[in-house]
Amino acid sequence: MRVRSCLVGVLACLVLSTASAQAAPITFTAFLTAGEEIPEPDIPVGFLPLGVAAAQFETDTDELMVGLAWLGLTTEPVAGHIHRADPATMIGPPIIDFGVFPAMTTGVLALSLSLTPVQVTSLLDGLDDGSLYFNIHTALNPAGEIRGNVGQVDVPTPPRPVPEPASLALFGLGLLAVGLLRRRLTA
């Protein structure tokens, strides 16, 4: 009976000591152009506004890290967002606001945002159905000057967990206990 209690204790320690795997981040990117914008923006002759966006969502902390770079805007940016488009109209409300932009027609913005549960749900649903887009708004084009539909979503496969030494030691101890129990039962 004492050996059985010892075996149950060892197996319980083995199960409880198994390390939990951390969630893998989700990365996505977009190339922003005036040609993607809906409705078509007013772009004067001689301007070619462009941008690129990259984001990484940490699923275990609900943190979103965003990097934006743009050049050649017609006027300074006044707002920037991630939107989730309605399939019927291909436009939609912002789900994530980037806050204040640098007052430059060519610039870079890097930020980290803590998302609310509602934002997390909208972001994940939009990544699943392909309806997300980045948008930079300017004074000349308040509905949006450049837009980029999220085209690449990378959800890496988490690496296989490597047993830590303590887990291996407990597993070995468990095997030893099973061997001792078997030896005692056959004797």
Write the SSE topology:
Blueprint: H1 2-16, E1 26-33, E2 50-58, E3 63-71, E4 77-84, E5 94-97, E6 107-114, H2 117-129, E7 132-138, E8 146-149, E9 152-154, H3 165-186
Antiparallel strand pairs: 1-2, 1-9, 2-3, 3-6, 4-5, 4-7, 7-8
Helix pairs in contact: 1-3
Strand content: 25-35%
List the strand order in the largest sheet.
6-3-2-1-9
Low-confidence runs of at least 5 consecutive residues: 3-21
Average pLDDT taken over every residue: 81
Number of helices: 3
State the separation between the terminal residues, measured CA to CA.
15 Å
Q: Give the number of DSSP strands.
A: 9
Along the chain, the helix and strand elements come as: HEEEEEEHEEEH
Our Rg estimate from Cα atoms comes to 26 Å
Taking the sheet with the most strands, its summary is: 5 strands, antiparallel
Task: Supply the helix-strand structural class.
Answer: alpha+beta
**Spatial shape:** elongated
What portion of residues is helical? 25-40%
Descriptive report:
The chain is of the alpha+beta class and 187 residues long. 27% of the residues lie in helices and 32% in strands. It contains three helices and nine strands; from the N terminus they run H-E-E-E-E-E-E-H-E-E-E-H. The chain has helices spanning 2-16, 117-129, 165-186; strands at 26-33, 50-58, 63-71, 77-84, 94-97, 107-114, 132-138, 146-149, 152-154. The chain has a five-stranded antiparallel beta sheet with strand order 6-3-2-1-9, with no helix packed on it. Helix 1 (2-16) packs antiparallel against helix 3 (165-186). The longest helix has 22 residues, at 165-186. The chain is elongated. The chain starts with a helix and ends with a helix.
